[in-house]
Specification:
Blueprint (H helix, E strand, L loop, with lengths): L1 E5 L4 H10 L4 E5 L9 H11 L3 E4 L6 H6 L1 H22 L2 E7 L22 H16 L3 E6 L2 E2 L6 H9 L4 E5 L3 E2 L2 E2 H12 L5 E4 L6 E2 H11 L6 E5 L19 H5 L8 H19 L1
Parallel strand pairs: 1-2, 1-3, 3-4, 4-5, 5-10, 6-9, 7-12
Antiparallel strand pairs: 8-11
């Protein structure tokens, strides 16, 4: 199939290319060559490619910067997504849109299902919720995938930051009161390939299974890399003052995946070990 990807330069974009390039004709656009905030450029790219499937992985993902540059966040995440969704509908293409756990406020203490009511507590989450609504209004054949705590081979993420700090310091402070579902972008890309070939349209929570605190996540990173001599200090979120408030609990329940009998993503610890012992080590050996 012909697949057009926006945001192809990001963590997920790189792994989408890695997964899809062998069996599909790709039109992979980074932000440098396709800014989804540019309506005319979006329509031109999609009309030229005439894709069967569009994967919208483009986003303003800097959560703290979004608080200071709200207009940019809404322009890319909300209005830009609206451009992609309407162009997808015109082209008759399926649309896979990537959303976030930050559409929730974190007040729940059991895993969030797709039927739970969103209530974002920061600009980034609000802009992404607006994007979901635009997709639902513009398209009939869409998949909205909320995911969380992404890490992968490229770019900066929690896993690579902890690993880097552990090689520089003897002690690292990590918050113990934020809980979520870590997600390996390679696993998410593989799930997207399977999902996009179905007609099971709708909203999905797609993260590696299980959950942990940021502190427990860091513990597992150091254990896998055999860096357990580095001391982890558990601290509350109040110790890190940031412009954007984060949901304290954004654990996902993959109810829609199970209901549609789709392959579930593997447990987060298994995925993390695979990443650290394979993708991460390969990248480290290059540097």
């Amino acid at each position: 199939m012909k697949v057009l990807i926006t945001g192809a330069g990001g963590q997920l974009g790189h792994d989408l290319i890695r997964v899809l390039s062998g069996s599909h004709q790709l039109f992979a656009h980074t932000r440098a060559d396709l800014n989804i905030a540019d309506e005319q450029a979006v329509y031109a790219a999609i009309r030229k490619a005439q894709p069967d499937i569009i994967i919208n992985a483009a986003a303003h993902t800097n959560v703290d910067l979004a608080e200071r540059q709200a207009n940019d966040a809404y322009l890319i995440n909300s209005i830009g997504t609206n451009h992609v969704a309407r162009a997808a509908a015109e082209a008759g293409a399926k649309l896979v849109h990537i959303s976030t756990d930050y559409v929730f406020d974190g007040s729940k203490r059991t895993p969030y299902t797709e039927s739970d009511r969103p209530n974002p507590i920061n600009i980034y989450g609000n802009s992404k919720l607006h994007a979901e609504k635009f997709v639902e209004l513009a398209c009939e054949r869409y998949f909205i995938l909320r995911t969380s705590w992404l890490y992968g081979r490229t770019g900066s993420n929690f896993v690579t930051k902890v690993a880097s700090l552990a090689r520089q310091k003897e002690e690292i402070s990590v918050v113990h009161d934020q809980f979520g579902s870590p997600t390996y972008t390679l696993d998410l890309a593989r799930f997207i390939e399977q999902l996009m070939q179905t007609d099971h349209y709708g909203l999905y929570h797609a993260s590696n299974r299980g959950y942990c605190s940021r502190f427990e996540f860091a513990q597992e990173i150091l254990r896998t890399l055999q860096l357990e001599h580095v001391r982890l200090v558990p601290v509350s979120s109040d110790a890190f003052v940031t412009p954007a408030e984060r949901p304290a609990y954004s654990v996902f329940d993959d109810e829609a995946i199970r209901r549609n009998r789709l392959p579930r993503l593997r447990p987060w610890k298994e995925a993390l070990v695979d990443f650290l012992l394979n993708d991460y080590n390969k990248e480290e050996s290059k540097s």
